[in-house]
């Protein structure tokens, strides 16, 4: 009797096949009724706006740090001036409400010229040069320029070129105003020296306010005069305007 063949048990291999569920981001993008390129463009625009906002905040923080360093440097300079024995007839300080300084602080002085042509009712204001201006920057220099206008009308406002990193700029610029002689004797000429700042407000170093009724118009006037402290109203107006300009330039 032949033995029955033994059957070996066969092993069945079970392969587990799993279908991966789609990711959250692709499924979320599929629900948006826009083409993929439009969605990516929107995301890129949002990221760009966030970067611009962060950069503006960093610039603002840097400007605040520069102001603090400038105040400390100005205090050191004023203390050195007290110990000296020189008799400087030049004056120089700051312009903000917190930075007005006392009247004996030095601001510098400005040389200007005045000439009035009666036949054509034309006033020529010459901004010649400035000397020993206050150092407004942390490096011990300033970027000065001069703004000129006439009150009370203030119809035209002129500005000289900006001179970089100097306390003794030579401007040699002339500005002409058409003004009747009657109005001339009732007007005030304002010449303001500013320190230019690219990313923050422009600091006023000092100003000269000249009552034109006191001027002898029979000859050309050319003289030096000390810069005085800016009026609080002018400083506040300048701060508001410069802050608005900074906001628009950052945005």
Describe the overall structure.
- The protein has a domain at 109-246: C2 domain (Immunoglobulin-like), CATH 2.60.40.150.
- It is elongated.
- It has 251 residues and is of the alpha+beta class.
- It is 31% helix and 26% strand.
- The longest helix is centred in the first third of the chain and has 48 residues, at 36-83.
- The strands form two sheets. Strands 1, 2, 3, 6 and 9 form a five-stranded antiparallel β-sheet that branches. Strands 5-4-7-8 form a four-stranded antiparallel β-sheet, with no helix packed on it.
- The chain crosses the membrane at residues 37-63.
Can you lay out the helices and strands and say which pair or pack?
Elements: H1 24-31, H2 36-83, E1 91-92, E2 107-117, E3 122-131, E4 144-151, E5 157-159, E6 170-178, H3 181-184, E7 188-195, E8 203-211, E9 221-226, H4 232-250
Antiparallel strand pairs: 1-2, 2-3, 2-9, 3-6, 4-5, 4-7, 7-8
Domain C2: 106-225
GO cellular component, one term: synaptic vesicle membrane
InterPro entries: C2_dom (IPR000008), C2_domain_sf (IPR035892), Synaptotagmin (IPR001565)
Summary keywords:
single chain, 251 residues, alpha+beta, Immunoglobulin-like, five-stranded antiparallel sheet, four-stranded antiparallel sheet, elongated, SNARE binding, phosphatidylserine binding, Synaptotagmin-1-like, clathrin binding, calcium ion binding
User: What proportion strand?
Assistant: 25-35%
- How many DSSP H or I helices? 4
**What general outline do the C-alpha atoms trace?**
elongated
- Quickly give the structural class: alpha+beta
């Amino acid at each position: 009797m032949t033995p029955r063949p033994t059957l070996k048990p066969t092993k069945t291999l079970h392969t587990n096949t799993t279908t991966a569920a789609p990711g959250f981001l692709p499924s979320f993008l599929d629900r948006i009724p826009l083409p993929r390129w439009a969605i990516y463009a929107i995301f890129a625009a949002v990221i760009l706006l966030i970067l611009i906002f962060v950069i503006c905040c960093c610039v603002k923080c840097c400007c605040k740090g520069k102001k603090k360093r400038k105040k400390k440097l100005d205090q050191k300079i004023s203390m050195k001036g007290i110990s000296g024995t020189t008799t400087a007839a030049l004056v120089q300080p700051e312009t903000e409400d917190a930075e007005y300084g006392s009247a004996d602080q030095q601001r510098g002085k400005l040389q200007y010229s005045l000439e009035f042509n009666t036949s054509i009712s034309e006033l020529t204001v010459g901004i010649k040069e400035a000397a020993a201006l206050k150092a407004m920057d942390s490096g011990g220099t300033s970027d000065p320029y001069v703004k000129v206008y006439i009150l009370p009308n203030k119809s035209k406002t002129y500005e000289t070129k900006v001179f970089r990193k100097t306390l003794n700029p030579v401007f040699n610029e002339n500005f002409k105003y058409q003004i009747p002689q009657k109005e001339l004797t009732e007007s005030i000429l304002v010449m303001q020296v500013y320190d230019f700042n690219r990313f923050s407000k422009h600091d006023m170093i000092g100003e000269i306010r000249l009552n034109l009724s006191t001027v002898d118009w029979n000859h050309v006037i050319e003289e030096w005069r000390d810069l005085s402290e800016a009026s609080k109203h002018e400083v506040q107006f300048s701060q508001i305007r410069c802050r608005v300009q900074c906001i628009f330039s950052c945005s």
